[in-house]
Specification:
Low-confidence stretches: 113-134, 525-534
Strand order of the largest sheet: 3-5-6-4-7
Mean pLDDT: 85
Helix content: 40-55%
Distance between the termini: 54 Å
Strand content: 5-15%
Length: 534
């Protein structure tokens, strides 16, 4: 029987607590918020340990979904089964604690609680509003902000005349398992921990069905597990870059790297050496994103002036109607002065995201005419634009906006449609608006829409019925409950069953009866003490 040192009840509990905090921020949420794992964590953690000790542990098949990038491309994400995720996180936490002594001074990836590098912070970042960006955890945002401020420090504080920017092409997909093993071998780790890690990776990594593992590529998750391994793989590269330019002139966030340097020629030399260093890890720098920027070009690339003006607006009070009018006026003024900088490119997408947030807070409507085009061109803005359209318009206008994007031939991203649909839950609808929303939810459940990601949107529809409907909606839900075994989308069946059961004890009994006929019961988290919502 294998003995897995350092993977015990305590480490698994710590991993579960960290994951539990991150679950509400993840892209794919569960209708019951994974309450089944909160009821008795001691039981399933104990069961997991017994299976590992007995050599019977087998990871479950993970859930795959995509997140939009740009021009049709998406990033494939992996969401492991919760016990597998907790075990994966516990192992990577343990490895990182052992390896962090090898970490250089200005390299970041997330995990604020494990990496405390405060002494070189050039600016105070504690008061930055975390909701301005989308991260799986507040600590992840904290580390990104620290990286961003240090990257500015290369130009503004140390006054390097040039800054070099580069990253790695398809980094997570390109990481060889052999390089992960090399990174682990630099620290003293029990071989059974390593074996268990790669046993999990074999199941979680993406590969063609029924083909053997290619032993390349880390699964991209939202819980800092694979990020930790990918971060450690780059430690040898960090050492070589620090030897080349010095620790104070090098900064890295995951695979995004910045260097301060004195001239264009030395910047080209840095890129040459960076490429050679990455080649030793069988990695390739992204030539299209690699740049040597003078101070003037970097100033426009990062839009320092626009961001500074938006920072000033962020500090304004937001409590009263007068405060919001002041914000509306200020953000409109900055927009008129800055909108032409979009042609300069650089990191304008992040600036535009801030404009949408502040315009939403102030109730400014000047971005509404361009919102649809912005979502199509920058799909990562979808959730932010959705909030803006909801805050600056009425229920009918938001429904019209969502419907137009659902039907638009250029909207090819499932996660964008899901974000728009979740926005429907936040709209204050009544009367005719509420009736239209209920009909929209019914249409989703009856499969009348066939846009990308309609299944994930249909899983939200029962919540719309619960929020805006009454018992007259029960026949439609009952029809689905009676045929749960025919459902090809468990998320839809689970959502319908939970909402239907919430209407009373009779409905709950019908759900239990339907669940008993399922071969793979995905309804085991439906609570037995439901009360009536009618």
């Amino acid at each position: 029987m294998p003995i897995i040192r350092n993977i015990n009840r305590s480490s698994l509990w710590t991993a579960w607590k960290n994951i539990r905090k991150q679950l509400p921020r993840t892209s794919m949420r569960d209708i019951t918020d994974y309450v089944e794992f909160d009821i008795d964590p001691d039981w399933w953690i104990g069961k997991l340990l017994k299976e590992i000790k007995a050599g019977r542990y087998e990871p479950a098949s993970p859930y795959r979904f995509t997140l939009a990038k740009k021009i049709g491309f998406s990033r494939q994400m992996t969401f492991p089964h919760i016990p597998d995720l907790v075990l994966y996180r516990a192992i990577t936490d343990y490895l990182y604690v052992r390896a962090k002594r090898l970490e250089k001074g200005h390299v970041y990836f997330a995990r604020n609680e494990l990496s405390k590098k405060r002494k070189n912070r050039p600016h105070d970042i504690d008061n930055v509003d975390e909701s301005g960006y989308t991260f799986s955890s507040a600590s992840s945002f904290e580390k990104w902000r620290e990286f961003d401020q240090y990257r500015k420090h290369l130009l503004l504080d140390d006054v390097y005349p040039y800054i070099v920017l580069t990253d790695i092409s398809n980094y997570f997909d390109s990481v060889l398992y052999g390089r992960v093993i090399d990174a682990i071998h630099e620290v003293n780790v029990d071989r059974n921990v390593v074996g268990l890690l790669f046993f999990i990776l074999e199941r979680l990594s993406i590969r063609e069905a029924f083909n053997e593992s290619p032993r390349i590529g880390l699964p991209v998750d939202e819980f800092d597990c694979s990020r930790t391994l990918a971060h450690m793989v780059l430690f040898p590269h960090d050492r070589r870059m620090v030897e080349l330019v010095g620790e104070n002139a090098y900064v890295r966030w995951m695979d995004d790297q910045g260097f301060g340097t004195s001239s264009w020629a030395s910047g080209l030399n840095i890129l040459k050496n960076c490429g050679q260093s990455l080649a030793r890890l069988h990695l390739t720098p992204n030539a299209a994103k690699s740049k040597v920027l003078s101070f003037k070009k970097a100033f426009r690339h990062f839009h320092f002036d626009v961001n500074e003006k938006l920072d000033n607006i962020e500090r304004l009070p937001k409590d009263s109607a007068c405060d919001r009018i002041a914000i509306r006026t200020a953000v409109g003024c900055v927009w008129r002065q800055s909108r032409y900088f979009a042609k300069a490119g650089g990191e304008w997408g992040k600036v535009l995201k801030r404009f949408y947030r502040l315009a939403g807070i102030g109730g400014a409507r000047f971005l509404r005419h361009r919102a649809l085009r912005d979502v199509l061109d920058e799909p990562t803005l979808a959730a932010r634009v959705s909030d803006y359209m909801r805050l600056t318009g009425d229920a009918q206008q938001y429904e019209h906006f969502v419907s137009r994007l659902w039907k638009h031939e250029e909207q090819v991203y499932p996660d964008v449609n899901r974000a728009l649909t979740e926005g429907l839950l936040r709209v204050e609808a009544s009367g005719e608006d509420a009736l239209r929303y209920r009909r929209l939810a019914t249409s989703l459940l009856e499969k009348r829409f066939q846009f990308p990601g309609w299944e994930a949107c249909a899983a939200v529809a029962p919540l719309l019925i619960l929020r805006l409907g009454d018992r007259r909606s029960l026949p439609r839900l009952r029809k689905i409950v009676k045929h749960l075994s025919d459902s090809t989308h468990p998320a839809i069946g689970k959502a319908v069953a939970v909402v239907y059961a919430s209407f009373g004890m009779e409905e709950y009994k019908e759900v239990v009866e339907a669940a008993s006929t399922l071969r793979n019961n995905y309804l085991f988290s439906v609570p037995s003490d439901v009360g009536s919502c009618a």
